[in-house]
What does this fold into?
Amino acid sequence: MSDMRIGGLASGIDTDSIIRDLMEAERMPLNKMEQEKTKLEWQRDEYRDVNKTFLELDNLALDMKLDRTYQSKEASSSNSAVSAKASSSAGEGRYSLEVTQLASAAYNYSEGSITGGNDEFDPDASLDSQRGFFANGLDESDFEIKTYGKDGEKSHVFSIDSSDSLNDVLKEINDSQIGVRAFYDKNADKVMIERDETGNYNSVGKEIDFGGGPNFLTSTLGLSGEEKGGRDAKFTYNDSGFEITSHDNNYSVNGVDFTLHEVGKSTVNVTNNVDGAVEKITDFVNKYNDIIESLGDKLNERKNRDYPPLTEQQKEAMEEDEIEKWEEQARKGLLQGDSVLSGSLAQMRTSWYSKVESGGEFNILSQIGIETSSNYRDRGKLEIDEEKLRNALSEDASSVKSLFANDGEGEEKGIVRRLEDIIGSTRTSIERKAGKETSTNQSFSLGRELVNVDQRMLSFESKLTQIEDRYWSEFGAMEKAIQEMNSQSAYIQQNFSAGMM
It folds into this structure.
């Protein structure tokens, strides 16, 4: 608890106000340090925002190096019999498929009603309690199910516990991971078991094998009839008479994934998806133009020296909207003339204009419809002639990709790879100056300046405490002297008055 200071009792002087005014003057250097700290923090944040923008461009650059950006394919089908999806490696052209058979999953169901249609049968009650309802009796012998699929042969042996219900037994079958689903339909009064994958994997027998002798499945549930389904898909390819079989209704040829939906003939056309390529290139150029404009504004924005950063004390005397408007002016010009950023912009512009000796048909951007704006106020922004770009992509998408993404050295390096190098170097320089969110202040230059300002502020605050103590001591001494003079004056006055009597 600090000592209460009361001055002016002897002199009548407002000591507190005088010392407060004196300390206001003494605090001026500290206020400037606080403003300096605020400005450094603003600068740090501005640099980090610039780095985030560069990172966005760098992320878009990843797409600009992929084949699928320039050579993505589009597949269209003549009817609903077949649908298709083309990868970037798909060969352009016409594909003809005639589907003669669709793949199907094997299934089997009870030959007849397992209870004779008795409505009182409860599939959730114990088998023992429902024993009298089964038309063929309750066979409690163990049974085995074998299945055949892409993972080979699987089997599982099941035991009948009469305390279990029919649905318990079917659930155990479903949970056995042998690739089948089983369920009881009360309306039909039958049980169905089906494979969870299509195709014929057992060429010499059934896809779902219930074993040779009578058991719960074949006797009680009547699953002894002929198996249905379990067929492979069949289709002829490109009118060649060459028949292809597939265990499922999906098949890939030459980078095209076909999905068979129904029996019939269908024609699939695969073409280069120019729209997708134009969109990706346009997005990248637009992001670059945004950076050019944003950084250009920051580099050319003049400082407003009439609006220094506000101190906390000054903010206390202002309204929120006043603070906002003031700081809008005070933040201007934080990156004015920055050499790292201006150098980066110059290098990026050069990268766009330079030739790329990749061996492709195109070696400069203007050949594919991308040129610099003729308006000097655009500061080197790029403009796209979409028709020319589309023609270039249709004519030779591979050469367009090489112009942007060729992996080489010197003049052989594609534009995007050159930009990546510049972005990487710039982001590293910015991080050395402004760090990133996870950086400690000692690891970057602006952070070290902030540490220095904090130390100076702490030292100066200690000095202010000493100055304030000195002022109170001096005014206290003055008050004491005045009090003594007042006491002496009163004493003399008292003696003088006594001598006159």
